[in-house]
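Late entry, evening session. Most of the bench is empty. Finally got around to the prediction I had been postponing all week. Sequence below, unchanged from the version circulated by S.P.
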Amino acid sequence: METKIAIGIMAFCGIASFLGLFFWVGIVIYLKKKWMAQLEDTLDNGTRFYSSLGLFFAGQGVLQYATVFLWRFHAKRFGMLEKRDKVSKHIQRWFIFAFWEFMLSFALFVVAGILVQIYA
């Protein structure tokens, strides 16, 4: 009985992590097309590193800007402490949501992987 429950949890975590990461890629594409250039103008003085390159770098940019919006330490570390207040809260919420979506999906993926290792 315990193995059947573990298999169900593994399946749920695996499917949920896959769907979550797929959804996160969609959010990254949306943020790259609509808000990334404006954010780079405000926070990085117009340097188009994340929006001009591929999807992989856009994903990194979404995660970096979300950490800037979430934690004062990271904003100060990246030299964006004063600049982050110039970005509207609406845009900040999109980036923060994308960050937590990625973290939740990755955590579910790790849980599924650990359960596979335990019950394999």
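Two things to note before I forget:
Residues 2-34 form the longest helix (33 residues).
Residues 2-119 form one domain.
Will write this up properly tomorrow.
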